[in-house]
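Predicting holo structure, iron/sulfur cluster bound.
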Amino acid sequence: MLKHLLSPFRIGNVELRNRIAMAPMGVEIVESDGSIREPVLRYYEERARGGAGLLITENTAACYPRGANTANEIAVSDDKYLPGLTALAKTAHEHGAKIAIQLAHHGKVGRFDTREGRPLLMPSEPKHSGFPSGPLDLTIEEMTEMGRAAGGGKPTIHVATSEDLKQLAADFADAAERARRAGFDAVEIHGAHGYIFSEFLSPAWNFRDDEYGGSIENRSRLLCEVLRACKERAGQDFTIWCRIDATEFGVEDGIRFEDAQRTAELAVEAGADAIHVSAYADPIGAGFTLGPIVHKESGYADFAAGIKKRVAVPVIAVGRIEPETGDQLIAEGKADIISMGRKLLADPELPAKLAAGRPHDVRPCIYCYVCVAQPFFDKRVRCAVNPVTGLELERAEPVRSVAATKKRVLVAGGGPGGMEAARIAALRGHDVALYEKASQLGGTLRFAALVYEPNERLLRWFEEQMRALPIDVHLDEEATADTVRAWTPDVVIAAAGARRGRPEIPGVNQAHVFDGNDLRALLTGDSSEEATEKLSFTGRLAVRAGRITGISSDPSRLREASRAYMPVGKRVVVIGGGLVGAEIADFFAERGREVVVLEAGPVAATEMAHPRRWRVLHDLREAGVRLVTDATGLEIGLDAVRFRAPEAPGRDPVEQSASADTVVLATGLEANAPAAAALESAGVPVVAVGDMTGVTYIEGAIHDGFRAALDI
Ligand SMILES: Cc1cc2nc3c(=O)[nH]c(=O)nc-3n(C[C@H](O)[C@H](O)[C@H](O)COP(=O)(O)O)c2cc1C
Ligand code: SF4
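Done. Tokens:
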């Protein structure tokens, strides 16, 4: 199993225990002076302990503070940073991992330069702003926070002189040599993602007419000079490679793949011991999910294979690569090392679990982009599914250690919050019982799994954890005050989910209007006579058949089956364009429905981390879904929904209507205080988590459940 991925490998002069590298990820755990302290060490320690062969650090600032993206970036520009750097290299080695430092200069993206009043270093005066022409899909709060992260100042630009470029090469060479002294095994020069080297490589940003502009050889010159300078200063035997963009998606005149292949050849001639193949697109907007944070599975695998054809050094592939695919890419000679980013935020132990033959135990990333939204706001990383990520110092050891006093913990509700609470409580040695009123675990996650496939992997993982751990799971049994009195727990964790109210919209009680309860019941097989009564005869038969065959309890099969039939008309109006409304709209549009989404606020899907929102809203628009924001005064008629909304941003609202065979209410979720109060009546302390306390979605539920169980 996975014998290629898990086999040892040599990159330059560095021996790796396997071919899994942690991709560089700017996690901003460093606190505003560039120095590495305990929290950073513990973050990397978890990944080294988790079995990766190679850790590539987050982008670090070779010329700190110049060219840094944030004050919270690791600095490598002075010997005063050596103690932290040395401790980091030592930490990785103590757990058998090798560690490369990613050296960067952020060029046009160097927010910290703007913040400190320095101009941004660029190859040329830019000819475009880098902003998309369509809607930004950001809230005012997000834009304000992004502005604050950049210091609120207006960026100015300094076009690099040849003196600047010499200085840059000298700074990188010093930083590489310093990294070697600190004990790092290798250096990765960050030549990608719109930062300084990538700007020189890109015809969309480099308009120079000197030896650094024009032909691809000239545009690659700066990167090659820096590689040579690093080798000369740090030693020819010191392993150094670069990360490059295979392409710039959607950027007119941007880097083309043929350019990237040539750059790779030139970099190897200049001494690069490997090439790490990433890609880039616009930093703002849906392009961000094409590059660098690719949404498509194995989205860059062909690029890696294409670069590998042209160079004799190892090629590192990246981009949502599943372990099996990574293994196959190596077997087929299309890549040598598989670099994984988000997967190792979600589960740092992924390599060790694979090596131990426990792939089902790997907590899956759900590609929700919460982690990578953080750097936009200059905030420390967090992961929706792994509450330890970014807080390893405070949380990693407590999760591993058994609680001083064993307690009886009753978890009421088997959704993500309840399952996470049960998992952590059981890991810490408590006696745990979990009660779920439905016939299957999952709660809202089961419905979320239907509309977004990565959520299903999380559901399966939780189910597996509930089976593997000593948790007494009761299905088809709702925890009540009587249950609490009978089971006599020390603490109850109430995770029974939100209340779903019907919004007060005229016409809301008609037969073609489905609320969240109805939809959940129809699509996931939870029994609800009220919901099925609303269906036609064929609809009722189909739902019944789904239940009998078990299809409606299996998100993948149901996803497929729903392509052929769904109890939903041709024209669908979704009321509420939040996370749930947007995901449902996407699901319906993919199944050929004409969809209109009516959102009361100015921006849709605000509960999604903004990079995912960019992707989803872009996909909705591409699929022809009409997204109406600022929609008020709704009235549901027999075959249409009337509302008031501006026809274009900034205009006054006007009366409009949208035809509807089916109306779906994706609003009305609220905290479930009455259910928590009912449990409290048994006289045992109750901690409410997740949607019971407000609407917190998967991330909030998991984090709440985790905290509640850790606090016992
Ligand atoms: C939170 C986060 C921060 C990132 N920061 C960096 C970075 O500092 N340098 C870099 O080259 N790439 C960075 N990336 C991109 C990753 O290295 C990787 O190429 C990308 O996430 C795709 O790989 P994945 O699908 O395995 O996550 C970052 C990605 C994430 C998720
Ligand atoms: S925050 Fe979301 S996308 Fe990022 S690693 Fe965690 S699960 Fe994956």
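The chain has a mean pLDDT of 93.
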